[in-house]
Amino acid sequence: NTIFSRNTVTGTGAYYGGAMFVSGGTSFITNTSFSKNTIGYVNTSATLSYGGALYRNGGTVTLNNSVLWGNGRGNNVADQLNAGITANNNIIQGNYLTGTEIKFGDPMFENAAADDLRLKNGSLAIDAGQNSYQVFSTDLLGKTRVVNEIVDLGAYENEGGGSIMIQPVTIDPLMRGLLLNLQLTTTGTSLAVKWTLQGGKL
């Protein structure tokens, strides 16, 4: 249960790991939120990462139930973490091809510019973790860690109460041959929502 927010390595040389630099040993990083950490290093590569937030130089690093979003390097290139890290059940901006259960959509922090990395209602980080990786019963604010049976990603557990609602809840029976013109609306999230209508025989 940790946040790393707005840390900066100002030197433009090859200095990596805006928030964390691991040189050796065994590191387990769990339920941690990384946001707006930067390194001054300039490299225009679109395929290589130099650890705007997290850099493994040696040892083993395992990243679980965490969020890396909005971190970067000197020339305004999004850069989260370098290769060679074991990643499980995380949100990582730009994806992380060697990980498992990696999501790469906006986690919807409350106010990252002010270091408020709590999750807004409707965040895809909610209920997206793996309970077996969680070792604390409370989050960074001391609130109950697991709500709705599955742990959230990052340092804070969303308290719920802001569920996504789809209206109308039910659809009245329709006459055969009638043109269907139905407007569905959602509240509780700014993310795209998809649904499918299924019906029986006419």
How is the topology of this model organized?
Layout: E1 2-5, E2 8-9, E3 20-22, E4 26-30, E5 32-35, E6 38-39, E7 54-56, E8 60-64, E9 67-69, E10 72-73, E11 77-78, E12 86-92, E13 100-103, E14 109-111, E15 116-119, E16 165-167, E17 185-187
Parallel strand pairs: 1-5, 2-6, 3-7, 4-8, 5-9, 6-10, 8-12, 9-12, 12-13
Antiparallel strand pairs: 10-11, 14-15, 16-17
Kindly describe this structure.
- By secondary structure, this protein is an all-beta fold.
- Helices cover 0% and strands 29% of the residues.
- The chain is built from no helices and 17 strands.
- It has strands at residues 2-5, 8-9, 20-22, 26-30, 32-35, 38-39, 54-56, 60-64, 67-69, 72-73, 77-78, 86-92, 100-103, 109-111, 116-119, 165-167, 185-187.
- Strands 1, 4, 5, 8, 9, 12 and 13 form a 7-stranded parallel beta sheet that branches. It has a 4-stranded mixed beta sheet with strand order 2-6-10-11, with no helix packed on it.
- The chain starts with a strand and ends in a 15-residue tail after the last strand.
- The relative contact order is 0.15.
- The mean pLDDT is 87.
Task: State the secondary-structure class.
Answer: mainly beta
> Biggest sheet, in brief?
7 strands, parallel
Tell me the quaternary state: single chain
Radius of gyration, whole Å: 20 Å
Helix content: under 10%
The residue ranges in which pLDDT falls below 50 over 5 or more consecutive positions are none
The number of E-state strands comes to 17
> What is the terminal-to-terminal distance?
54 Å
SS field, number of helical segments? 0
Shape verdict = elongated
Approximate strand percentage: 25-35%
- How are helices and strands ordered from N to C? EEEEEEEEEEEEEEEEE
